[in-house]
């Protein structure tokens, strides 16, 4: 695994906006960054990333049924009691799931270590499945990358296949927060993939979803039989409309049981069941009696996204924090495995690299890479493409 500088494509910004990638830049800073790429060997991808991803996925899937039957574990995950039966039914009815992403710390040597599961509302989807693949093809075409360069990226193909096989009710609705450009772009990408396999789809802003006679309805009062919602389950079950979710006949993607796996509490539960697994880091639920872990540990809210409210104590005792809105809930503690540091020659600074590994259905489907100037990866962290060579 190495970081390699490369010349940008002259037209990429215009192309990004042409295909709807409107969040390629945040506040004047690049989110999509193709001034460099990461290079992996095929062995690194197959043995260190693809195989562990599918093994860890199977491990957490094997735990879902047990969690739904355990008051102790549901309590530890801070799942509202009113939703325990709803989740149990969701799992036991076999409600299908679509996709998720695991975040790893990996430096090219030794086992990748799982940092967290993003199994409910992961983004970075369009830029992984489509835009970095186009980057690869065009850089090969221009001669800046060798013809035999490849990419671990079957994300788009597997999402299309999943939509073709899931037999979802139609019209199928896709929803996101109205004013989030990134979320709307992610939902538009998924809608396009679903349309390509013949599904009838409709977009609705989350703010426009209503309630009628115990059903979730669209702007015309039509009950929604199927809904992809880019909105976290942990928020939904605490909203004023939570009771309508339980009375409605809506089939959700992701299903309710996914809220068990997108919870940071799955990390200590995994560690309890698989202690010393090579791809796991020691993790524990925080209690009033918790002692500092050492040397180096991380404090994470059960419900947190994009690094928000993460607190890190490095092995040297330095404290690194990220601000956010998730400070009023419960926390876990996880041993610190620092992200690998690379040199960003263009900016003349060090950069820390996190690797995301996608799962569609039950199969590994590709990777994405994010960079940040700090040890905590945030929503503003840059997206860097990758290749496989050798």
UniProtKB/TrEMBL annotation:
An annotated Gene Ontology molecular function: metal ion binding
Domain of life of the organism encoding this protein: Bacteria
Domain Glutathionylspermidine synthase pre-ATP-grasp-like: start-end pairs: 12-388
Keywords in alphabetical order: ATP-binding, Ligase, Magnesium, Metal-binding, Nucleotide-binding
Species annotation: Cellvibrio japonicus (strain Ueda107)
A Pfam family annotated for this UniProt entry: GSP_synth
Protein name per its UniProtKB record: Glutathionylspermidine synthase family protein
């Amino acid at each position: 695994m190495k970081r390699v500088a490369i010349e940008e494509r002259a037209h990429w910004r215009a192309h990004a906006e042409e295909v709807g990638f409107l969040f390629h830049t945040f506040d004047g800073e690049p989110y999509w960054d193709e001034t460099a790429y990461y290079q992996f060997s095929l062995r690194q991808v197959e043995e260190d990333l693809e195989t562990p991803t599918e093994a860890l996925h199977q491990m957490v899937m094997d735990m879902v049924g047990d969690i739904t039957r355990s008051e102790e574990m549901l309590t530890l995950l801070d799942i509202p009691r009113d939703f325990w039966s709803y989740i149990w039914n969701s799992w036991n009815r076999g409600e299908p799931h679509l996709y998720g992403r695991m975040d790893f710390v990996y430096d090219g040597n030794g086992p990748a270590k799982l940092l967290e599961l993003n199994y409910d509302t992961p983004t970075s989807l369009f830029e992984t499945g489509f835009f970095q693949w186009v980057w690869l093809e065009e850089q090969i075409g221009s001669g800046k990358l060798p013809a035999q360069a490849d990419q671990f990226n079957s994300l788009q193909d597997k999402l299309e296949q999943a939509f073709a096989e899931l037999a979802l009710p139609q019209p199928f609705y896709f929803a996101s927060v109205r004013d989030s450009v990134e979320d709307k772009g992610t939902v538009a990408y998924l809608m396009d993939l679903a349309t390509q396999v013949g599904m009838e789809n409709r977009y609705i802003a989350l703010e426009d979803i209503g309630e009628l006679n115990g059903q979730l309805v669209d702007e015309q009062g039509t009950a929604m039989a199927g809904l992809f919602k880019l909105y976290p389950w942990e928020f939904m079950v605490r909203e004023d409309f939570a009771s309508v979710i339980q009375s409605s006949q809506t089939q959700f993607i992701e299903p309710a049981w996914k809220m068990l796996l997108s919870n940071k509490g799955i990390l200590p539960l995994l560690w309890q069941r698989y202690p010393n697994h090579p791809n796991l880091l020691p993790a524990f639920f925080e209690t009033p009696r918790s002692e500092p872990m050492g040397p180096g540990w991380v404090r994470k809210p059960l419900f947190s996204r994009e690094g928000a409210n993460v607190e890190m104590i490095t092995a040297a005792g330095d404290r690194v924090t990220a601000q956010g809105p998730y400070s009023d809930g419960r926390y876990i503690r996880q041993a610190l495995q620092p992200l690998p540091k690379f040199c960003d020659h263009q900016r003349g600074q060090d950069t820390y690299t996190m690797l995301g590994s996608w799962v569609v259905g039950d199969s590994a489907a590709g990777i994405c890479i994010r960079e940040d100037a700090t040890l905590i990866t945030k929503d503003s962290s840059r997206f860097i493409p990758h290749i496989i060579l050798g």
